[in-house]
Design a protein that fits this description.
heterodimer; A: alpha/beta; 7-stranded mixed beta sheet; elongated; B: alpha/beta; 8-stranded mixed beta sheet; 6-stranded parallel beta sheet; 14 helices; about 30% helix
């Protein structure tokens, strides 16, 4: 059913319809905030994929001007020969110029009691936005993407401030999660115990990425793991107070890391995207830590997979949080 | 100061190589740690082309193989390293789930592929192999760790194992690293041949070094059975003879013997499916909760189930079992040939393409609960499932005349659908107390993004890691053969004169229906 403008009676009608629906199983309430029409299609696609695999009550909040009123869709699973089974329920609500309290109340009325609630916020920015505050208060998990809409560092800083406010919600940043294969590649250089000493002798760090969040996260992660402190804008100090310049260069496609170079006292460790195949990274070490070239296929994950992983892993990610704090102090 | 205790602190002695890598905290990686060589015997065979080499390549693409590895093909066919690589590239291009092999990953992978041509009973060829592996240890950093994969016809398993020992490639002669062996199914064709093979195996390998592969166990839904049972509290109190009426385990296929007529005609459904796959499912559904999630605990519990299976008295074989062979019929609207018309099948073959058996497990949990097992080819639908049928309610309180109160039933769907279905009774809305059965279904949705790896990728990776959870231990293989031997022997002694006795595309032979109907029950529809 669809209505032109969402009213209390619309809401009541939708609730009755939802109550009538035979749902096979349900794992969560999944609230998705959309405000940029250019991103609308892929966000809806990712939300559909996630809810198809994890049957959910999905509440799509569309702050794009063209969407009005409230509508209900049911996603089904099955084939012509079997009885159709309702797999997910999606309620779409037009939220353009709707008061935050009204959005919150409407969403509250639609949530299934007793299920975890995940908020996927795709807006930019979110700090000091009453609608965001109203929605995040209903959620156990928040999923954001700090390099989703802007290539600069602003969203990372916003997230760092939000985390500092200690709101009791589990936070996952897709920009951070996308870096796991790069972190693994850097860690590989030092899996060999004979080379581990080099971690104490890093002198310079250079990261090239298409947006700032990725480079900052990798720098913040490395610094926080190694006990460094931020001792200037774009500069770390290690435990012996050796200054380590951190050069982060914005180049290439958004959300893509192109190269990492770690220079130590005696070696240089590099991970560069191959010229021949942008999904292959060439790992190389020269100097005293030299080793043969190694190729790694980048394990690129689509948005739905990243969202799924964010939802499934809702415990505190201490490594992420310390890296984010490091980024905050680095940019302060 | 950083506020995370897990960050790196350099020790007082200034040496960092004793520390764990601090960058590893929080990184979830599946990469196999130990470098190793994997040697495929039967490297020119169909399994290698279709499954094993694509699996190895995808393990490499997924960055699951260790940093240092070597892959050696061994078979009688004449290949050089280069022509072997060309053949393997063709097979990856055709059969890999990730599509054709592309540079630069393929060239990097191919550098680690090599080939030795030789006879499986020629000790000189194995001496060459030994030299080759030692050279790989130096050139590729494979650290003397060796995994041998027997993907040859079963008749060659013993000679190869013997040659490994004679040429100094057995574990006793490898003090520098580990040595393991993967043995493809079937492990024997009956109890005696399985024991004979095991005698050869244990002359060279101890049990912890042997990985008997049953690719069915590598399928994800099979692992879901343990999750359903042991990650929930609500089922366990009902999971016993007090509440369970019977259990049906079905592995039904729509395909015929395809290109395996020669093999299958000497095997049959009982050997090919029931003795391994289906009985494995039975052990998973019937076992006690393991003390730990490690492979020995799980395999111990599965073995206890096998030990408790009541041997079928030979006098009862023709009562408690049913067999069938498909004749011509219709599959999906198309005419389908009968088994005896299949390529490489004897025209008067008496091989079973359908087998059904009733087993009992004599222990406190399952005493007197029948387990009905069935498997067949060319049946109406492809389906694998375990159906736990609960007992009837003890006293009927509700329901109008004519209302049927079906037993509760929990169905674990393994393939092609993956999920769980629970049948229970509910009141129909209205003034009268009508009761009807409703089914609550949970289907795992279509996966996306990171696809579950095919069974061979999972299993080869597990063997390289030394995780034997999904491999079958010898005592379990032996016990499974013991369970089916009275049936095999009786079926051999008393050929079924009614073959072919079911039409392709049907529900199976009428004798299977009689088997279960004699107990007042019905098969679930395939």
């Amino acid at each position: 059913m669809t209505t032109e403008h969402a009213t209390p009676s619309d809401l009541e009608a939708i609730r009755k319809e939802l109550a009538r629906t035979v749902l096979s199983a349900m794992t969560m309430n999944f609230i998705v905030w959309i405000e940029n029409p250019e991103h609308r299609d892929w966000i809806l696609d990712a939300a559909d994929k996630v809810s198809a695999k994890h049957p959910s009550r999905v509440v799509i909040l569309e702050a794009c001007s063209k969407v009005k009123g409230m509508s209900l869709q049911r996603a089904t699973h099955g084939d012509d020969t079997s009885e159709m089974t309702v797999h997910a329920q999606r309620v779409t609500i037009g939220c353009n110029a709707v008061a935050p309290d009204q959005v919150r109340e409407t969403v509250h009325a639609l949530l299934v009691t007793g299920l975890p609630t995940v908020l996927w916020w795709t807006g930019n920015p979110f700090a000091r936005r009453p609608t965001f505050d109203a929605l995040v208060a209903s959620a156990e998990s928040l999923v954001v993407n700090t390099s989703g809409l802007s290539a600069d560092e602003s969203m990372v800083l916003e997230l760092e401030k939000f985390m500092a406010s200690r709101t009791p919600v589990s936070v996952r940043d897709i920009a951070w999660m996308r870096l796991s294969s790069w972190q693994d590649m850097i860690a590989q250089f030092f899996d060999n115990a004979a080379v581990r000493e080099e971690l104490f002798a890093i002198r310079r760090l250079r990261i090239v990425a298409g947006s700032d969040a990725e480079a900052l996260y990798l720098g913040g992660w490395l610094g926080s793991r190694l006990g460094w402190t931020a001792c200037g804008h774009d500069e770390f100090c290690d435990r012996q107070d050796v200054h380590i310049p951190f050069e982060h260069v914005r180049d290439g496609g958004a959300r893509r890391v192109r190269s990492i170079e770690i220079t130590t006292k005696n070696s240089v460790f590099t991970a560069n995207v191959s010229d021949g195949d942008e999904n292959v990274v060439i790992l190389k070490a020269t100097g005293s830590g030299a080793r043969g070239e190694r190729l790694v296929q980048l394990q690129s994950m689509d948005n739905a997979s990243l969202i799924e992983r964010a939802i499934l892993d809702s415990t505190t990610d201490e490594v992420f949080e310390t890296a984010l704090r490091m980024v905050g102090t680095l940019l302060a | 100061m950083p506020d995370n205790a897990a960050t790196l602190t350099k020790p007082a002695d200034g040496k960092a190589d004793g520390l764990a890598n601090p960058l590893r905290a929080g990184i979830d990686t599946n990469r196999i740690k130990d470098p190793c060589n994997i040697v495929f015997f039967g490297a020119s065979g169909d399994l290698m082309k279709r499954m094993l080499m694509p699996a190895m390549y995808n393990l490499r693409l997924g960055d699951i193989l260790p940093s240092d590895f070597g892959i050696v093909g061994f078979s009688r066919s004449e290949f050089t390293d280069d022509t072997f690589r060309d053949e393997m590239k063709k097979s990856i291009d055709e059969f890999s789930r990730t599509g054709p092999a592309k540079d630069p990953m393929w060239s990097d992978f191919a550098k680690r592929l090599s080939y030795i041509s030789g006879d499986f009973d020629d000790v000189k060829c194995f001496a060459n192999l030994k030299k080759h592996l030692e050279n790989n240890d130096k050139e590729l950093g494979t650290a003397a760790n060796r995994l041998f994969y027997l993907s040859t016809p079963p008749s060659l398993f013993s000679p190869i194992i013997d040659m490994l020992e004679q040429s100094g490639l057995g574990p006793k002669d490898n003090a520098k690293g580990w040595t393991r062996i993967i043995i493809e199914k079937p492990f024997g064709t009956d109890l005696a041949s399985a024991r004979a093979l095991q005698t050869e195996v244990e002359k060279v390998f101890n049990e912890k070094q042997v990985y008997r592969i049953d690719h069915y166990l590598g399928k994800e839904p099979v692992q879901d059975i343990m999750a359903l049972r042991f990650a929930n509290v609500i089922f366990e109190p009902l999971w016993n003879r007090r509440y369970v009426d019977s259990i049906q385990i079905t592995a039904a296929e729509t395909v015929g013997v395809e290109l395996r007529g020669g093999y299958y005609d000497n095997a049959g459904a009982l050997r090919d499916m029931i003795q391994n796959h289906v009985i494995n499912l039975l052990t998973l559904v019937a076992m006690e909760p393991p003390a730990q999630a490690n492979f020995e605990s799980i395999r111990d519990e599965k073995f206890k189930v096998l030990m408790a299976m009541r041997p079928i008295d030979k006098q009862r074989v023709l009562i408690d079992t049913a067999r069938g062979q498909y004749g011509p019929g219709t599959m999906g609207g198309q005419a389908a040939i009968g088994y005896r018309q299949e390529p490489d099948v004897r025209p008067q073959s008496n091989t079973d393409t359908y087998a059904a058996i009733k087993f009992y497990i004599d222990n406190w949990r399952w005493s007197d609960v029948p387990f009905y097992l069935r498997s067949g080819k060319r049946l109406a639908h492809k389906t694998s499932e375990i159906a736990v049928r609960f007992k009837s309610i003890p006293h009927r309180l509700f329901g109008e005349a004519g209302d049927t109160l079906d037993n509760n039933e929990l169905v674990m769907k393994i393939q092609p659908e993956e999920g769980i279905s629970l049948r229970f009774s509910a009141k129909v809305p209205g003034p009268k107390m009508h009761i009807r059965s409703v089914s609550m279904d949970f289907n795992y949705g279509t996966g996306f993004g990171v696809v579950s790896p095919p069974a061979y990728e999972r299993l080869i990776g597990d063997a390289m890691r030394g995780d034997a959870t999904l491999f079958t231990r010898w005592d379990a293989v032996e016990a499974a053969w013991q369970a089916v031997m009275p049936v095999l022997e009786t079926w051999q002694e008393v050929p079924d004169e009614t073959f072919p006795n079911y039409a392709a595309g049907s529900q199976g032979p009428a004798s299977a229906d009689r088997l279960i109907q004699a107990d007042g029950r019905e098969w679930r529809k395939i």
